[in-house]
Write the structure tokens for this entry.
Amino acid sequence: MCVDWHERFAEAPDVLKSALRQQTAVPVLDFEIGGDGFITMAGPCSVETERQLMATANHVRRNGVRVLRGGAFKPRSSPYAFQGLGLEGLKLLALARQETGLAIVTEVMSETDVSLIAEYADILQIGSRNMENYALLEAAAHSGRPILLKRGMVATVYDLLHSAQCVLDHGNPNVILCERGIRTFETTTRNTFDVAAIALLKLVSHLPVIADPSHAAGHRELVPALARTAVTAGADGLLVEVHPEPCKAWSDGEQSLDFDAFDAMMASLNPYIALRESAVSRTMEAVA
Ligand code: PEP
Ligand code: MN
């Protein structure tokens, strides 16, 4: 007997595929996430300096990246770790957008910061630690900006879909789901990359799904393989940490790619992306 996914996910009805809605394409600047094209978002874990951010933005843009990531308000596990540059970081992100034309995604951690961050960012990231912070989801939804919703590290697929439904309930249809690994008994990798979640989300939901192999792996050597797996599982895009000098990064250096490693990963992804795009256009033709 087949699982009835609509019954299974009954409390998140609006994020599920229906006869009327098979796929949502989230508009950002002059492109879409969840449309035909595969979108790569890349950049440092944290915005550190103008030099670091501009070098990274200029480099990743040359590789076809459309969205620059970079945290200005950082959720750190230790209260003594670098917490982000705050407003200064947002200003540097705005400068990078102005110079490169890249869209900006950055994390918002508190309801009170939503309007400030929405002034600077094209996409608001809700991080893993806040996936079930409903007051934040509501405030972020009301900003009208697309929301990149990261799966909580101990959240099920259903929990993620519930949170996405919450954003839709508050009038914002532009949600991008992100698989970034979950906590399991395995501790060699930072998290366990749940590739089945990507396949499942693509099967049941019309929302775009992107993968974050950096936070899933926790080690830069593993990032390209996870990225390739994400493409073959049907992801609409990637979120990857890149830093000019990962060994000197103020956060998440261990999982950040340097420029050469990023270039090599992107080159290795090309054939996978080409296959995906021909499959997507065949599906579109079949639906039409
Ligand atoms: C990040 O993207 O830098 C981040 C903190 O991610 P997560 O919320 O998935 O841990
Ligand atoms: Mn990070």
